[in-house]
Amino acid sequence: MSIKQANTLNLKDITALVKDTTPTSHSKIKIILRKVAASLLFGLSDITVLFCSILASIGFLQYFGDTSATLSLNRYFSILPFALTLFPFSYLLRGLYPGFGVGVVEELRSLTYCTSIVFLLLAAATLLVNEPILYDQPLFITSWLLALPAVPLGRAFVRKLCGDKQWWGIPVMIIGAGKAGEEIINALQKHIQIGLRPILALDDDPNRWGYIHSIPVVGGLELAAVLGDKLEIDHAIIAMPSVKRERIHQIIQNSSQHFTHLTVIPDLFGLSSLWVSTRDLGGILGLEVQQRLLRKSSYITKRILDITLTVILGLAALPLILVIASLIALESHGSVFFRQERMGRGDKRFKVLKFRTMHNDAEQRLEYLLQQDEELRAEYEFYHKLRNDPRVTRIGRFLRKFSLDELPQFWNVLKGDMSLIGPRAYMPREKYKMSGLDDMILKIHPGISGLWQVTDRNESSFEERVHTDIYYIRNWSMFLDIYILARTIGVVLIGKGGY
Fold first, then answer.
1. Is 211 a domain residue?
2. Which helix (H) or strand (E) holds 352?
3. Which domain holds residue 300?
C-alpha cells in the first residue's frame, strides 16, 4: 500500500498500515539517503570551512610579513588534500556524520577535540620533515584558532538551512505518552535541527490515544514491533520513567530486538543530561551525575575567562558606552546609570549596574499602572516585565531591544559580583517565587547573559526561567558557555525578544 511521508502520518494511516500485510513504501533506502545527504552537506561544509581557514591564515601571515611559513603554492596544494581528509575522518569516528541526534553543545565539544587532535598530529608530523610545510608554527596556530569557531558555525548554517526541510532527520518512535513522552515530543519538535523526528507514540493507556502536538498516539506497546518494521524505524525512545523496574526491563528486552538505537528515559527526568556517564559497579549499572560548575577548579577557570573576555569586550565597547551615556543625558534628567539590588553568589546582595532606560519616577508609575489595569498587572505577575511599558524612555526602548542597557555590567563582572554567562540576576523580592530552587541558583554568580536569554528570552514565564537556570547549572561546561556567548551575539544583533 502507499502511505504518506512518515512525518505526516495520522491515526487513519497507521490503522490501515497495521492491518495491511504488504510491504510499505517507506523503505530503509529513503532513510539511508537522508543520512547520506546530511553527511555530504556536513562534510562539504567542514572541508570548505577548513580550507578557507588555512587560506585566511596564509593571507594573514603574509599581510604582516611573516616569512617563516612561506611556502610555494604548488607544494601547499599538493599536501592540502591529504591534510583536509584527516579532519572529516576524525569527525566520522566521533559520530558527527550524519549528525542526527547530536546536541549542539556535544557537537561543539566533539568538534573542538577532534580538530585540535588532528592539528596536533599534523604538527607532530612536521618534526619528521626537514623543511617547513603547511602546518608549521605561526601558520599552524593561526589555522587552528580560525578553524575552532569556523567549523561549528559552518555546521550551524547547514542545520539552519536544512533543519525545517521534510527530508531532514530520521523517524523516531516514542514509547510512552505520559508527561515524559509529551515533553520528549515537545523538545524534539522544538529543536528540529537535531534531526530526530517523532512520527508516532505508543501507550498502553487507551485514555492517552489520540494526538500529542500533532503526533499520533496509537495502541499499546505490542504494536512497537510491527510498526517499527513496517516504517523502518531504527530509533525508539522509552519515555516511561515512573513504570516499575520489572516492566521497564521487559519493554527494553522486547524493544531491543527491533530497534538498533534505543534510548531510555530513567526515573531521573529533569536532572543533568550533558554530564551523565555510566559506571559498571561490579555488573550493576550506575549513573554518575556531575555538577561541574560547583567544582572549585571550574569556578577558577570560569573566573579567569570572565576577566579576560570582559577586559577585551569592555575596551572594544568603550566608545559605544560613551555615546549611549551622552544620549541618555540629553534625553532626560537624572543619572545615566541605574542601580538595583540583586541576589549574588551565596545570597550576597549587590547593586547591578545598568544604563537608565526609564523615567526617574518609574516605580511610582508602575504602582499606579498595576492598580488601574488588571491586564497589565496579570502580564507583570507572569513575565515580571511589560511589553509596552510606559515607564521606558525612547532611547531606553532601543537599548532594551538590543540589550545595550546591560553594557555597564562589565564593571559588575570585574568586581566579582557577576559572570559573563550565568543564571539570571534575581531581585530579593523574587526569592519566594523560586520554589526552593534558590539554594542551587545562588551557589554561583549570576550572568550578564544566560541560557534563558538566548532561548525564549522575554517570552518565557518566570517559572520557566528558573528551571532553565537550573538546567544551565546542572549541565555547565565551557562549551555550553561558548555556545551561549555565540548565541547572545546573534540575539543581540537582531534584537529578538527584547523589550
1. yes
2. strand 349-355
3. 296-357+392-494
Whether the CB-CB separation of 473 and 410 falls below 8 Å is answered with no
- What angle separates helix 138-162 from helix 104-125, to the nearest 10 degrees? 150
The x, y and z cell numbers of residue 106, run together, are 556535544
pLDDT in tens, 192-249: 889 999 999 999 888 888 888 888 988 888 888 888 888 888 899 999 888 888 888 8
What cell was used for 330? Answer: 540629553
Which amino acid is residue 376, in one-letter code? L
pLDDT tens column, 379-430: 777 766 667 777 788 898 899 888 899 999 999 999 999 999 999 999 998 9
Angle of CA points 31, 34, 39, to nearest 5°: 130
Query: 462 near 433, Cβ under 8 Å?
Result: yes
Other C-beta atoms lying within 10 Å of the C-beta of residue 81:
10
Same domain, 173 and 158: no
- Grid coordinates representing 453 are 536569554
Query: CA 356 → CA 110, 399, 409, distances in Å?
Result: 42, 9, 12
Residue with C-alpha cell 567549523? 151
Report the distance separating Cα 134 and Cα 143, nearest Å: 10
- The answer to whether 258 and 224 have CB atoms below 8 angstroms apart is yes
Q: Which of 101, 98, 94 is CA-nearest to residue 43?
A: 98
Q: Give the residue from 470, 496, 463 showing the smallest Cα distance to 381.
A: 463
Kindly state whether residue 371 falls inside one of the protein's structural domains.
no
CA distance 232 to 246: 28
Distances (CA, A) of 261 to 15, 173, 188, 228, 448: 25, 11, 16, 12, 40
Question: What is the value of pTM for the model shown?
Answer: 0.76
The secondary element (H helix, E strand) that includes residue 276 is strand 276-281
Q: Which long-range contacts (CB under 8 A, 24 or more apart) does 264-271 make?
A: 264/237, 264/238, 265/176, 265/180, 265/184, 265/237, 265/238, 265/239, 265/240, 265/241, 266/241, 267/241, 267/242, 268/241, 269/180, 269/183, 269/241, 271/474
Residues 319 and 243 in one domain: no
Q: How many domains does the chain have?
A: 3
